[in-house]
Sequence to fold (598 residues):
Amino acid sequence: MGISPIEYHPWKGERIALNLRFYVIARSILRHKIRSAGVLVLLILGFLLAHTLYLIMFILSPHERLEPTDMSSYLGSGMFTVFAMLLAAVVTSDLISEDLASNSFVLYFARALKVRDYIMGKAVGALLVMSLLCLFPPILVAIVSMVTQTGDDYVYSLGVLCKTALIGALVTVFFVPFGLMVSCFTKRKSYAAVGTFMSFFVLAIVAGIFSQFSNAWTIVSPIDSLAILFRWFLEGKIPTYVDEVALVLIITFLMVVPAAVVYYRLTRQVIGK
Amino acid sequence: MVASQTSSAGVNTIHVSAKEVTVAYGPVVALDGFTADIPRGIVGLLGPNGAGKSTFIKACLGLLSLDRGAISVGGFDSQAQSLLIRDRVGYMPEHDCLIQSVNAVELVSHLGMISGMISLDAMQRCHEVLDFVGIGEERYRPIKSYSTGMKQKIKLAQAIIHDPELLFLDEPTSGMDPQGREELLDLVKKMASSEKTIIVSSHILQDVERVCDYAVIIDSGRLVKSGDMRALLAGEEGVRSISVRGDAPSLQRYVKALEKLCRIIDKKDDVVGQLTLLVRGCEDGRLVFRLAAENGVQMRRFHPERLDLEEVFLRAFRGGGRDGH
Fold:
């Protein structure tokens, strides 16, 4: 191909603020993920298996108001958490591993983008996708239940709906840092996806083994610890064998430590010293 | 903020200024008290592999923390104001860094948006810069199917999409065929005409000689030599090159006679019957010509010494003049 005769032209447009640039990454991830067949299949299957059954049940069964016990059994059934785990594994798998494989960090960080904003962009993108299964469907189920309630205590139902939304938000956030952490340690997205899911699965197995000796070990399993947290939050009840502080600590640990690891790893990766 | 130099006209002539910069990776010192003032225009950053060229560029971008010293880029401090620098700078990395699964339009426009361009502007500008670098319809193919030359062009396109004031090109012609090199260097020249400062890091001396106005030679993390390209290539002050042709006895007589007039610092047989001499102290050209006539040799050339960049580079590494003195 010959040299293009087109001359270089300066560009004189306006730039968006530095602290909003993470949003570009987030939007790009959302756009790519909702076009991905794997993500679409998981979203549809997850919606059908984890939400639709309860949606139909709430519509068909007469109820006076939105009961926290109903929401607790719906959200803590395990199906919801398992699909959230699966979706997080698929969504976060390539977010950092692809940049690692192609050495493309430099393309981002040679621009006015902080490591913090890069991670935030990736995380927000993943959270937007996760919310399609973990945040909006539970809110929808709660709203449908409120609409079809026979009683008129809407304030009580609204309180449960708000708690449901908070739980949905927690599940949306819960698995993403761990998925990002695994993704930043491998150049292969398949390893990252399997690694993320298997890590939680192994924790569940460990919890299953050690709970033979003491039920307190149940909280090591993310599925069980989230189910206990839902019940505690919605109904105010917590099993006697569970230490509240340990429960909060383990859930916080599973979110904060991976996020810190991702930050540390990328800072080392980019700066190199 | 590091003070920057201004000309008498008040225009800032120094775009990048490094003062006593030291960067170490553990026990390996990549930059060792590096000091240089880099003016506007096309500047060549020369040095062998491992000299510290890429480290210097990363330090300018604020991607590396300095162990000592300071770098000012366009008046901004590279450590405290790195985001402001990076917003005004384009960087074409040396190594392969393009995301393979996307096409050129997706990648370049996405990076334009990360540089702060709105979606519509980024897309329009993306096509503009891809046209400029000579990427045609293949821009819609995944990058993994591109040749090395095309990838280099995409790297250049992503570096200029936001129209930076300063452009760092790290080994821009690396892995390219001669035609591709020509094309890329022509693009660099075209961009420089729009008042950009372009710092070209390379170990291909011909490339630098062809496009650069100024050169900075670096080795083992230290500045070896820097200066305006014309001045660097001009050779030593007072040294002249003389080419004469004749038979062997005549040439011998001429050299003996010339030795009485000035100091011969180099002598080279070009072809049979032709001699090229480098002399110092032959200020009066008429005497040189008269000697040639008296000794029966034909004067072919007599001019101030001119160097190529390779010779400048070698002399700089020998640490002195022609003979290392």
Remarks:
- The mean pLDDT of chain B is 87.
- Residues 135 and 310 of chain B are 33 Å apart (CA to CA).
